[in-house]
Design goal:
Elements lengths: L1 H13 L5 E4 L2 H7 L4 H5 L4 E4 L1 H9 L4 E6 L5 H14 L5 E6 L2 H8 L3 H18 L5 E3 L5 H9 L4 E2 L1 H11 L1
Helix pairs in contact: 4-5, 4-9, 6-7, 7-8
Length: 171
């Protein structure tokens, strides 16, 4: 059973004496969400899904937001989990998924990181320019550097790495 294997992997990692286990893979996180709370707590270390702190910041961003993706394969699962997160907390959220041209993520998969970063920056900049009052949420860890550059220029971009850093500093 997949859940038994997942739990076994997490217990093995926790057995190495770690304080926490950070899960960054969207598909792994989706399987993790299927575990009941008691089973997850029995692992022996804090298990953190990278998108949970990001979900909190997106949900608390003021209602409307554009959620940017470069990987079309992650849109449905991420949006479903984001909406469930907001709903479970009674937070009204009007999130619109915006997906970059399919070729953009291919740059990353083919090892063209510089091109990916450049085009991701342009993609996010275009979204922030459309309506600066509406925040843009960069949905993938691979988008964090581009998002941070825009934040440095005053754009309202929520990205998972900064959200995680804020979460961990309060932990």
């Amino acid at each position: 059973m997949l859940q038994d294997r997942l739990t076994g992997q997490l217990e093995w990692i926790a057995g190495c004496g770690v304080d926490a286990i950070l899960i960054t893979c969207t598909n792994y996180i989706a399987e993790l969400a299927k575990l009941d709370r008691a089973r997850l707590e029995s692992v022996g270390a804090e298990v953190i899904a990278i998108d949970e702190p990001w979900f909190r910041e997106v949900a608390e961003s003021g209602g409307a937001c554009r959620v940017a993706f470069t990987n079309p394969a992650t849109v449905q699962g991420t949006m479903k989990r984001l909406e469930a997160y907001a709903e479970a907390r009674g937070i009204p959220l009007r999130a619109e998924a915006v997906v970059a041209d399919a070729s953009l993520f291919e740059h990353l998969l083919q090892g063209r990181e510089d091109r990916y970063a450049e085009e991701t920056s342009a993609f996010l900049a275009g979204l922030t320019a459309e309506d600066p009052a509406v925040p843009v949420a960069a949905a993938q860890l691979s988008m964090a550097d581009a998002a941070r550059k825009l934040q440095g220029r005053g754009a309202r971009v929520i990205e998972p790495l900064s959200a995680l850093q804020r979460y961990l500093s309060a932990w």
